[in-house]
User: Fold these one by one.
Assistant:
Number 1:
Amino acid sequence: MEFWKGKEKKEEEKAARAMIELRKKNAEYEVVSAEVMTSRSKRQELKERIRELEDMLQDCQQQLDTLLKALEEKNCQYDRDVRACEEDLQEKKSCNTSNLELRHSYRTRRQTRTMEAAFNERIERMERIQKELQEQLARSQQETGDLMVRSREESLKQKDQMAKMMEMMSALVKGKGPM
């Protein structure tokens, strides 16, 4: 009888140790599970941020295209204006010039120079805007790349954590867990 009581007591102690170990593993599992959930939400936030940045990048690209198109139109208009002014000047030179015509020709050349200066200012402003947009685009692309790298790293960490949890769970289920 003593023998069975001793054996029963050992079995109860062994079961109690296994229960304590199981509770520890369960607590570890809960912590890791919470970390995985947090990591998933962070990953989702990063995905949303990437989408936002990609949309911003696309908007900037569209703005840049619009500005370039407007610049081309202004260039064409400027070329037409310059040609018209040159034709007017040629016409004036071919005619007998009087003082009135000379003054008008001078006024036309002055207007042409004024138009050229204004056009050059517009060109410079457009180039500055284009450069700024390109810099914004480069920054957005860099941020997007960085976010994608971080997202991938997080994903790999989550995958490793899940693999570890699965190993721990299988060891617990098979009864091979550390005791």
Number 2:
Amino acid sequence: MYTLKDTVTYSIKVWLSTALAAPLLLFLILGIAINGTQADEIVQAAPMLGFMVVYGLLLSIPAMIVFWLIGHTLFKRSSYRNTKSVLSVYGLASVWVSFYFFDKGLPDRGPQQYLWVLIYACTMLGCVWIVPLRSGMHPSASP
């Protein structure tokens, strides 16, 4: 049986992992792979990266509270994989909705903005499945 501590810790780990990894991936993919930015220019942009992390953490608080509520409820009543599947769908939807509302609508920003959302959504999806529910538990294990 999963405890309140298990589900809170899991949600916080997914939240922090997503908030830290997504901006870094965004910088690497957009900066180096797409725009041909040099590595030293990315290092110089570290304050912007820090801002993105803090901004992302603050704006995602409501979505992550709902994420925790869903996870806490489902981990008690449903299988481990079903719960992570539902959290995956919710995570993807919450990223898209958050970007839509906080970025004043996606279509107006152009195709590169969709790449931002895609990177954040994929990072969230990966974190849902990679982060174990309990410490020492293999992420794909079904207790």
Number 3:
Amino acid sequence: MLLPPEQALFVRGTVPALLLAAAPVHDDLPVLAVTDGEVPRCDGWSIVPKLTLCVVDGPGEAGVVIPSMVAPVVDGDQGLPADLADWCEDAERAGGAVVLSLDALPESLDWAHLLRAGTSPRRLPPGTDLTDRPPGADLT
């Protein structure tokens, strides 16, 4: 399923993030679980970060394709515009990306709010160690 680029936000960081708004895979993605600062990998899910398209692929028919070349990219530290090639390198280096499926994209990157229990559903394909977590994230 194709997700319009305005419904995605690529966020650079040691552990890059991909925020999806009203994604068709919202109910298919596993709920994000953080234990001792780590997010386990999600079996059956993968992310393929490329400059033209980003694919989040799940089991069976679950998955989404984002035209990444026209989607917004921001730096996780300051929220300033960033380069998608750098986000792709971040994802390769981290071995994946945290994917958050939300009802709508946030006005600002408040990681403590986005990752706290009781907020919009948090989701993740292929997880990674969040010892080097997104800037400002309070995962404990």
